[in-house]
Amino acid sequence: MNCELCIIPLRRTKSYSIYDEFFDDKHRLVDVIEKYLQMQLKSTESQSSFLCQSCYTHLDDFHKFALLVKEKQESLNDIPTIKLEDSDDEEHEIGYIRDTDVLVEFKTDGDMQDDDAADMQEDLLIPAAGYANGTDYYNDSRSGFEYNSSWLTGNDRMFKSKNCFPKTPVRKTPYKTHTPEDRSRIVDAANRGDDWSALASRLGVKYKTAYTWVSTSRKEMFLKSGKTSFTEDEIQTIIQWIEENRQMTLKEIVAKVKSHLKKDVCVYFVEGTLEGRLYQHRRSQDYHPHLMNTIENKMKRSEYVKTLKYYMDLKKSIIWLGEANFKMFCRRAKGRFNTNSTIYATCDPTIYMMGAISHDGVLDLKRSRTRIRPEEIFKEWMETKRDNITNFVIVCDSDYCFSELDEYFNNSDVTLLLLSPYSCTLNPLEIIWENIKTNIKSQSNISHFIPNDLKEQRLLVAEKCIDDMLPNITVDDCQNAIRNANKRNKDIMDMLDMPVY
């Protein structure tokens, strides 16, 4: 059985029927193929009417790109245009340029001829009076002629006259520099809680310069005076909203705070409250809770549970593989934060985590500031289990892990199983990630390191909490997580709805 497009045999990769609905539930795969590739698909005995994982991914990416381009192009319809309105007079036209109130008058050739005729008549009358008064007219008319000719030739005498007055040369002085000792004294005074602004004034340092030193070199956050508007539980509630819907904007958070928490705050206060806070970044397939309990996804979830139970009945060892990302909310370095943009941003500092567990305990758990490849988890495991790997089944929670491991285990007998969509709670590693997140949030925000800024400090604190907790995950923790994840298998087999988190 081959792929319909690339004619590659469908062996280990996941296949998709071309008559299934696409991700937006509005188009079928066959419609998307005929639309973008301009080809007619016919069902024959040699073809399978299925697509491989690679072709499906390319179609998915291009279809999303096409929808994005269409949305952006439709937004161009709101740009104002130039409007011209005809007046009653045929020789004049008055127009409005965009949204301004400036009137633009367009003169016809008849108007230009009338103006020239008026000037001509005026010039003919002037010489008679000029000759009567002597040579004054000659000097005045000559200066006027020179002015008009200079305007026509581009050599304006008014601008030339400015050069007659010599300019005072500007004396450039070198910037005032400060010694590292002054900066260290001001920062140390701020860390002790002393009046660092008064010390900066005595040392001849401007307040703005000293504030920049203090704000980028403090070991802890500034102490805020007065009563805080948000409690710690309310802040965790806001972070939970962001984790559930990463498309939420600052304005939407302010509106939700007003309706749920009964507090009226501004967007900049919310922005400052979330500064340096960590939140868990969920995968894109978890951002559509309304699709979790559709009939199609229920059937896929039931098929996954049946397959998993089949391998368990064969006494095979099940290994669950999962990944998680922890992002940090950071304000923009320059300019104002766009209140209509989403909280989620790719430029935010991120901690990537990936691991694998089984009934026997933890195979490996890694964390990094760069994305981890799945084969790094199984390198040491493959060296120890090389002789007996046919008895293992690896459950992947994403298409990325499945495709990477499918290539890595291409020449081996390891069985790969892809988790059903919108079913992240069926992965026991989600419980492990939740425990790690709880441990990070319970720790103090003050670090023993001396980083360059608060962003680096928060990342060091989070990494230290993760590194301290990973060795403490025991076999009992893994077994309890697997047991809790398998509790819903019976409800899934009965086609019941899963709870939406």
UniProtKB/TrEMBL annotation:
Gene3D superfamilies: 3.40.1800.20, Ribonuclease H-like superfamily/Ribonuclease H. GO terms for molecular function: nucleic acid binding; zinc ion binding. Pfam families: zf-AD. GO terms for cellular component: nucleus. PROSITE patterns: ZAD. It is found in: Nucleus. This is ZAD domain-containing protein. The gene is 106085205.
